[in-house]
Amino acid sequence: MIYDVLQLFYVAKNPNVPMKIRAAMVAPLGYFISPVDLIPDLVHVVGYSDDAAVIAIAIGIAHLYINDEIRQNAKDKMVAFFGKDILRDL
Hints:
The relative contact order is 0.19. The chain has helices at about 1-15, 20-35, 50-60, 70-80. The protein has 4 helices and no strands. By secondary structure, it is mainly α.
């Protein structure tokens, strides 16, 4: 899910993406990092389901703007955070 969140982040930063799409990415990203959730993250398994649903909806909105450059930026950031072995799981 972090890879998807990073893609949304890079869509939101891209000046070539229409402002309304960029603005639409801010809410899901804010919800993802917010400590207040509909289902608390401390609840095993289902705790992240609301986060995943919000991110999936945002990916659906942004999919036309997720290009190879955005995918590569997200992968590069994943490697920076977690090491190159993380790419095996993508």
